[in-house]
Design a protein that fits this description.
Elements: E1 3-8, H1 15-21, E2 24-26, E3 28-32, E4 35-39, H2 48-56, E5 62-64, H3 68-80, E6 84-89, H4 97-111, E7 117-121, H5 127-141, H6 146-156, E8 160-165, H7 169-174, H8 180-188, E9 191-197, E10 203-210, H9 215-226, E11 235-240, H10 244-254, E12 260-265, H11 268-274, E13 279-284
Parallel strand pairs: 1-2, 1-6, 6-7, 11-12
Antiparallel strand pairs: 3-4, 3-5, 8-9, 8-13, 9-10, 11-13
Length: about 290
């Protein structure tokens, strides 16, 4: 290819998915108990089992955005080789990473004025970003040129529907996403927040689900309601954080409504903020934040 297609490790694509579409994933840093790690799709520095084991043992991980020098380190070899770049990563509504990326791209553009560096805000988060990248990666692998791929990403990103149910209210409290009182109240009543993503890529609390037995029916209902009219021809992602049994049940519930369901697990970048137990479904359709 005459250009490189790149994203970041918040996409939560598996090593196999990344290899299938040929996208390059820039690692992202997380910290546990004063030790720093980089997360890659192959989890080479810490497995997801170990990561969630640390959380179960009481660790409170922290994350940081990709810095300018890291972007330049990953971009420059392609530019030096005469290749252009298209990058879409964690949404600007959730992280300042894309603004840092734009600064790096501007500095590199001065050094490589003949090269094109296309930076796109995905307006998607976690496996929603992964889903967008996976679909775009199919076009990339089929030979779409850089302008065609950029147009596809722009046309598709606001059609990616994310529906998350978070289990671990304590992690949301520790991360400042909800108050201590809300966490205690939610646990006592077995209330779980139903979360989606708006058109700026920000996480929004859409509703509350009472009781574990209502999680999969609620996600399945959103899948039915919001899915693309051609859903029978589409792949969908079922997503979890340290909840493989829940993911298998959710896959069973939705698999008859689309052509294929792939299971992804939330990595440390997002897992640091949502903890264990999350279930989600990601698909193409109409973003309906009700």
């Amino acid at each position: 290819m005459k250009y490189a297609f790149m994203t970041d490790a918040s996409c939560d694509l598996t090593e196999q998915q990344v290899a299938e579409i040929g996208v390059e994933v820039i690692p992202m840093e997380f910290e546990i108990d004063g030790n720093y790690y980089l997360h890659y799709p192959d989890c080479r520095m810490m497995s997801l089992d170990e990561f969630y084991g640390n959380i179960r043992d009481g660790a409170v991980p922290k994350t940081s955005q990709i810095n300018i020098e890291t972007f330049k380190m990953y971009f420059e070899p392609y530019l030096k080789a005469g290749k252009d770049i298209i990058y879409t990563g964690i949404s600007g509504g959730l992280s300042g990473t894309i603004n840092t990326c734009k600064i790096a791209a501007e500095e590199l553009a001065e050094k490589y004025p003949k090269r094109k560096i296309n930076i796109i805000d995905s307006c998607c988060d976690s496996a929603g970003l992964g889903y967008l990248v996976y679909l775009a990666g199919k076009k990339y692998a089929e030979g779409a040129d850089i302008d065609e791929l950029a147009e596809y990403i722009e046309e598709t990103k606001l059609k990616v529907c994310h529906w998350f149910v978070v289990e671990d209210l304590e992690m949301l409290k520790k991360g400042g996403r909800i108050s201590s009182a809300a966490a205690v109240f939610g646990k006592a009543l077995q209330i779980k927040p139903l979360i989606s993503v708006d058109d700026t890529g920000k996480l929004i609390n859409v509703g509350k689900i009472r009781g574990a037995s209502n999680v999969i029916p609620t996600l399945t209902e959103r899948f039915k309601r919001d899915g693309d009219k051609d859903m029978k021809k589409q792949v969908a992602f079922v997503v979890h954080s340290d909840n493989p049994n829940g993911a298998k049940e959710l896959k069973k519930a939705v698999k008859g409504m689309c052509s294929e369901v792939q299971i992804c697990e939330i990595g440390p970048v997002i897992g640091s903020h949502v903890g264990s137990g999350l279930l989600a479904v990601v698909f193409l359709g109409e973003r309906n934040l009700k």
